[in-house]
């Protein structure tokens, strides 16, 4: 993504806060830094998934067909047991989490 690793480590472990007119570095615990990294990862996956859905909808849009305002996702049972789960599984897990909010 073109982000300097040292810069990321510095700002996750010692984030800068604006106090009045000055910027102050604040020490962060390992768990706080890990939470920040997790939050950014979730945001990146969410935005990427939304882009994928938009692109799928654009591709599948046929003016002669009836309009549908959803995209179906199939979750294969047992897919999570693989040693390595790729981007597809992350997208499926994200959809499952979002769907659980409705039920």
Molecular structure report:
By secondary structure, this protein is mainly alpha-helical. Helices cover about 50% and strands about 10% of the residues. The protein contains 3 helices and 2 strands, in the order αββαα. It has helices at about 5-15, 30-60, 85-100; strands spanning about 15-20, 20-25. A two-stranded antiparallel ribbon has the order 1-2. Strand 1 and strand 2 form a beta hairpin. It is elongated. It starts with a helix and ends with a helix. About 0% of the residues are buried. The model has no long low-confidence stretch (mean pLDDT about 75).
SSE inventory with pairings:
Layout (H helix, E strand, L loop, with lengths): L4 H9 L2 E4 L2 E4 L4 H31 L26 H14 L3
Antiparallel strand pairs: 1-2
Order of helices and strands: HEEHH
Net shape: elongated
Characterize the main sheet.
Answer: 2 strands, antiparallel
Percent helix range: 40-55%
Instruction: State the oligomer.
Output: single chain
Instruction: Report low-confidence residues grouped into runs of 5 or more.
Output: none
Q: How many β strands by DSSP?
A: 2
Radius of gyration: 20 Å
- Distance N terminus to C terminus? 36 Å
Query: Strand share of the residues?
Result: 5-15%
Mean pLDDT: 77
Strand order of the largest sheet: 1-2
Structural class: mainly alpha
Total helical segments: 3
């Amino acid at each position: 993504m073109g982000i300097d690793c040292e810069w990321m480590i510095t700002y996750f472990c010692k984030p800068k806060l604006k106090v009045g007119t000055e910027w102050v570095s604040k020490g962060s615990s390992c768990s706080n830094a890990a939470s920040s990294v997790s939050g950014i990862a979730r945001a990146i996956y969410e935005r990427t998934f939304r882009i994928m859905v938009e692109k799928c909808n654009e591709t599948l849009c046929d003016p002669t067909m009836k309009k549908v305002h959803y995209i179906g996702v199939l979750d294969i049972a047992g897919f999570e047991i693989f040693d390595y789960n790729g981007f597809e599984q992350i997208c499926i897990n994200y959809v499952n989490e979002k769907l659980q909010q409705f039920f």
